[in-house]
């Protein structure tokens, strides 16, 4: 048995095992394929908005005349707050409403950022966008894994396609908007570039939220319902899932009670809590790798667009459409 399973409530573990078997029996159906699409919107937003702070950095520097790192700092502080808040929140309040709320916050405040009259307003709005973006992948990943059969959970990796699509859309929009801004008004191109890009991507994010909220009906996570003691609600969710897929299920409250009955003795056997040394080294290595990847991702999103617009022999940054092809090819 895996070490993290040894210390799990045996009653919950028995119910979760029965739940996994039931979802596997229902199979990968229409509902889960739709979920692949709407959950992918979270990956899309998580790709677009961190990159955006780098794409607009150059024109914002010209427009507001501030120290460049502050814009990235505001966006990343928002990401940090959002990641922590929503990760705990989805286990406290459930996944259903947070699944829609994170994308709504991202779209509304991203759209509002396009009308920012000064740097403080822009940085504050992008920080709130970061709070919304920070919750997309934690919540969406949990929702996806909770409702997809184990045989198809590899699709979580395939969802990275949405990430690349987000990079491509943001870069191509930047290239088009830069050209339009510079050609339409040579006296004030920088302000136009910010408005075009923020309004376009903010509106697109709101459109994706509307598809989630009005077109797709999300079921609450049955694992969350088990965790808060709402077994009846979890059974209803599985029955709705089966119906949406055109399948049937024999999961009932009686089967849940039978599965948990052998463990309802009031005694929990606790194995050795000490983590084996090889596993400690593995966890440390994985944590270090993820930390380095996180640092590299932030540097890439912020400095590649900036450097692409910087002539090698000058400290003057001139906005042009060279950034977008570079980022588009990488995406």
Automatic annotation (TrEMBL):
The chain crosses the membrane at residues 33-62, 68-90, 97-116, 154-175, 195-215. Its main location: membrane. The keyword Membrane applies. Keywords: Membrane, Transmembrane, Transmembrane helix, Transport. It is found in: Membrane. One of its GO terms (cellular component) is membrane. It comes from the Eukaryota. GO terms for molecular function: transmembrane transporter activity. It holds the Pfam family Sugar_tr. It is a multi-pass membrane protein. The keyword Cell division does not apply. PANTHER family: SYNAPTIC VESICLE GLYCOPROTEIN 2, TRANSPORTER, PUTATIVE (AFU_ORTHOLOGUE AFUA_7G01740)-RELATED. This is Major facilitator superfamily domain-containing protein. The lineage of its organism: Eukaryota, Fungi, Dikarya, Basidiomycota, Agaricomycotina.
């Amino acid at each position: 048995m895996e070490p993290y399973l040894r210390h799990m409530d045996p009653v919950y573990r028995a119910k979760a095992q029965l739940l996994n078997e039931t979802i596997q029996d229902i199979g990968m159906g229409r509902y889960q394929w739709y979920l692949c699409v709407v959950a992918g919107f979270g990956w899309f937003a998580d790709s677009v908005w961190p990159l955006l702070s780098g794409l607009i950095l150059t024109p914002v520097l010209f427009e507001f005349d501030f120290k460049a790192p502050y814009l990235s700092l505001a966006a990343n502080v928002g990401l940090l707050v959002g990641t922590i808040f929503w990760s705990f929140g989805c286990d406290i309040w459930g996944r259903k409403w947070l699944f829609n709320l994170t994308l709504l916050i991202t779209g509304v405040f991203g759209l509002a950022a396009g009308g920012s009259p000064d740097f403080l307003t822009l940085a504050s709005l992008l920080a709130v966008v970061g709070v919304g973006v920070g919750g997309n992948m934690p919540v969406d990943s949990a929702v996806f894994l909770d409702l997809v059969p184990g045989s198809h959970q590899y699709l979580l990796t395939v969802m990275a396609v949405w990430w690349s699509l987000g990079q491509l859309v943001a870069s191509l929009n930047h290239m088009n908007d830069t050209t339009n801004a510079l050609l339409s008004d040579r006296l004030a191109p920088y302000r136009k570039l910010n408005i075009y890009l923020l309004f376009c991507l903010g509106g697109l994010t709101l459109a994706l939220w509307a598809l989630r909220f009005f077109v797709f009906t999300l079921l609450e996570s049955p694992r969350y319902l088990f965790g808060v003691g709402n077994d009846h609600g979890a059974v209803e969710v599985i029955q709705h899932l089966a119906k949406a897929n055109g399948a049937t299920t024999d999961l009932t409250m009686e089967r849940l009670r039978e599965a948990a009955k052998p463990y309802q003795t009031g005694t929990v056997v606790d194995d050795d809590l000490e983590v084996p040394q090889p596993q400690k080294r593995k966890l440390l290595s994985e944590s270090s790798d993820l930390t380095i990847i996180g640092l590299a991702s932030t540097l890439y999103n912020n400095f590649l667009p900036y450097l692409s617009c910087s002539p090698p022999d000058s400290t003057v940054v001139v906005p042009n459409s060279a950034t977008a092809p570079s980022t588009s090819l990488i995406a």
